[in-house]
Amino acid sequence: GYDNSRFRIVDYAAKWDDKSYEYHHTPRCFDFPAIDQSFLTELSTIAIQCWQVFGLEGYARIDFRVDDNKRPWILEVNTNPCLSPDAGFAAAAEYAGLPFADVVKRILDNAISRKSPGSFRCLLDSEKHIIEPQNRAYSPLLAAGLKLSDPKIVFRYNPLQKDIEDVRQLISETGFFNPGEVNVAVELVEERLTKGEKSDYHFVFIEQDNRLIGYSCFGLIPCTVSSYDLYWIAIHPDFKRKGLGRMVLNETERLIYESNGTRIYIETSQRSHYSGTRSFYEQCGYNVTSILKDFYALGDGKVIYSKTLADKRA
């Protein structure tokens, strides 16, 4: 770091002049203590929200400054960060396991293949089995930010055959759902595997070292123009309270928004057992639209939440 006589500003010399004091006292660092992991997750969530708010495409980098009280301040939303092989963006990509040539190829492929905003068609990285929508530009910096601990945590979007049992196990281990409900969750995965996008079931999977630790399932509500149902969202109990639920929900909302969705509906139980679930939805900006008394059983009503996605296209 700098001595006390210098302003702690990353200027041109710090980034590019390899003969300067600033350059040699501004080391890159991607390793953080365990105590910072939840805060890194928060930064990732904010970065994804910036992506949504500004309607970004292609690739980008969100720059932060963090004060002494661990409050993040957004310094810049850089929609065209330097792609030089020795720049910070490339360094973040390399840390995320992406060689520079692969990063450039992903950016070009995304630009070439980007179709209509409503497309959920995906590209498959056959080596890593990471699947990304064509209209979702891959941000290596965000991928690095999603890293809670080694190995990295990554998003995936197309179901694989193994997800049939993985989803069954995950839903069962949450302790919230009966066997019939578990079977319904599995059936949605099976239908997507059988019918593809014609099923109109879409997914966000989140994995650690190929282990499914959370997911969501959503789709356009039949006979509506732009309203979506969030059918399922679940996080493995071992990974609760790490911000992953909010990350999965944010990613789901982004995909719905990019498919021209305007409103999302979520249904849950009115039982006290689900109070934490309802609190989570409310903290994420969902409002109670209606309550159907005794819907599931006597004393167990259905609570319907909704959220309107702000239209930033105008």
Please describe what this structure looks like.
With 314 residues, the protein is α+β, with helices and mostly antiparallel strands. It has 3 domains: 1-30, no CATH class; 36-155, ATP-grasp fold, B domain (D-amino Acid Aminotransferase, Chain A, domain 1); 159-314, Aminopeptidase (3-Layer(aba) Sandwich), CATH 3.40.630.30. The protein contains 10 helices and 11 strands. It has helices spanning 12-16, 21-24, 37-53, 88-95, 100-113, 140-145, 163-174, 179-195, 244-258, 275-283; strands at 61-66, 72-78, 122-125, 130-133, 153-156, 202-208, 211-220, 227-235, 263-269, 287-297, 300-308. A hairpin with a 5-residue loop joins strand 1 and strand 2. Helix 3 (37-53) runs parallel beside helix 9 (244-258) and helix 7 packs antiparallel against helix 8 (179-195). The chain is elongated. It starts with 11 loop residues before the first helix and ends in a 6-residue tail after the last strand. The model is unreliable at 115-151 (pLDDT under 50).
Topology:
Layout: H1 12-16, H2 21-24, H3 37-53, E1 61-66, E2 72-78, H4 88-95, H5 100-113, E3 122-125, E4 130-133, H6 140-145, E5 153-156, H7 163-174, H8 179-195, E6 202-208, E7 211-220, E8 227-235, H9 244-258, E9 263-269, H10 275-283, E10 287-297, E11 300-308
Parallel strand pairs: 8-9
Antiparallel strand pairs: 1-2, 3-4, 5-6, 6-7, 7-8, 9-11, 10-11
Helix pairs in contact: 3-9, 7-8
